[in-house]
Write a structure and sequence with these properties.
With about 280 residues, the chain is α/β, with parallel strands linked by helices. The chain has a single domain, classed as NAD(P)-binding Rossmann-like Domain (Rossmann fold), CATH 3.40.50.720. It is about 45% helix and about 15% strand. It contains ten helices and nine strands. The strands form two sheets. Strands 3-2-1-4-6-7-8 form a seven-stranded parallel beta sheet, sandwiched between helices. Helix 1 links the parallel strand 1 and strand 2. Helix 1 packs across helix 9, helix 3 runs parallel beside helix 4 and helix 4 runs parallel beside helix 6.
């Protein structure tokens, strides 16, 4: 563990992090663990969840791996009950599970549309329903939801953009509902981040080059960039912040313009959604 271990406001708290087997979710879990938080590593991939938990433990932290599909309400209920029984009541929830299907509206099937919304929006709803009662019993807490710049500017594909727009709206709605219970809820909107979700498109030179050209800071985002924002919103320094969205995109939404690479991106189809 690094020098942040036992940082006031995080030490001994229990955090539930979804999508924590890879990418942004894993980076959030690791950063919270570095600050002394006990982590429930939730992921649909059993091996990935176990690997993340093992890495946290190896670094001196404490973690429990739980394999679960966030769109399965009964399974999520069992998973959260296990977390409470094993680790204690969670006071932090990071909703980071996500998939994408790279198809336009007319090329998408209803099944693909539903699956993206099931994971990226309904899955968040299911976790909120399962975790908030325990968080109330613990006396309050903080929720951070991973949205996307797609929810702001329509960058990407219809099902993903719709889901992320829903995350933004849900977060704002719940800020007022949950404040009386001492629970804050915010979101983070990443730009283009180097994760498994973008491995396929960023492996295409025209898309990767055009992306970097449209990021004022001149580089792609890394999972640690998003994790830093999540940790801020989850922690005591953001105690007066709720119902807001923090865009972490290197300035991309201020400059979005695709002189090249647009055709390759819009025509890029992936039959199976990648995971974070």
């Amino acid at each position: 563990m690094n020098s942040h271990q036992g940082e006031r406001g995080f030490a001994g708290q229990v955090a539930v992090v979804t999508g924590a087997g890879s990418g942004i979710g894993r980076a959030c879990a690791e950063r919270l663990a570095q600050r002394g938080t006990v982590i429930a590593v939730l992921d649909s991939n059993t091996d990935a969840a176990a690997e993340s938990a093992a890495q946290i433990t190896l670094a001196g932290g404490k973690a429990l791996a739980v394999a679960v599909d966030v769109s399965d309400e009964l399974a999520v209920g069992r998973a959260v009950a296990r977390v409470c029984d094993t680790l204690g009541q969670p006071t932090i929830l990071v909703n980071a599970a996500g998939i994408i299907v790279r198809k336009g509206l007319l090329d998408s099937t209803v099944q693909e549309w539903r699956r993206v919304l099931d994971v990226n929006l309904t899955g968040y709803f299911i976790l909120l329903k399962a975790v908030i009662p325990a968080m109330r019993m613990a006396g309050g807490g903080s929720i951070v939801q991973i949205a996307s710049i797609a929810g702001h500017i329509g960058y990407g594909f219809s099902s993903y953009t719709a889901a992320k727009g829903g995350v933004l709206a849900l977060t704002k709605q719940l800020a007022g509902e949950l404040a009386q219970d001492g629970i804050r809820i915010n979101s983070v909107s990443p730009g283009v981040v180097r994760t498994g979700l973008n491995r396929d498109t960023l492996g295409t030179p025209a898309i990767a080059g055009a992306t970097i050209q449209n990021i004022p800071v001149g580089r792609l985002g890394e999972p640690r960039d998003i994790a830093a924002a999540v940790c801020f919103l989850a922690g005591p320094e953001a105690s007066f912040v709720t119902g807001t969205d923090l865009v972490v995109d290197g300035g991309m939404v201020s400059k979005i313009h695709w002189p090249s690479g647009a055709r390759e991106l819009q025509n890029f189809h992936a039959e199976v959604g990648s995971t974070r």
